[in-house]
What we know:
alpha+beta
Amino acid sequence: DVLKTVCTDTFLTVEIRECPAIRFMKQSGHEPSEWYEKTTSVLYRVLAEICGLRFELEQYDRQTGQARFTFRRDEK
Length: 76
């Protein structure tokens, strides 16, 4: 319910309504680090590079972890 994907031959777009980890941290009285966003932007960028894809983080909300990002394959 928190994840939506759209996949074609050249891209995969992922939309996350909220990050379960951020929700858990806040419910247990902890505020996520200002660097927590990097777990999305850096991790997925590196994984995309390993797979020969491009990664675009199009939207990210630090309060909820709501995000939209796309992995793209270059057309040949």
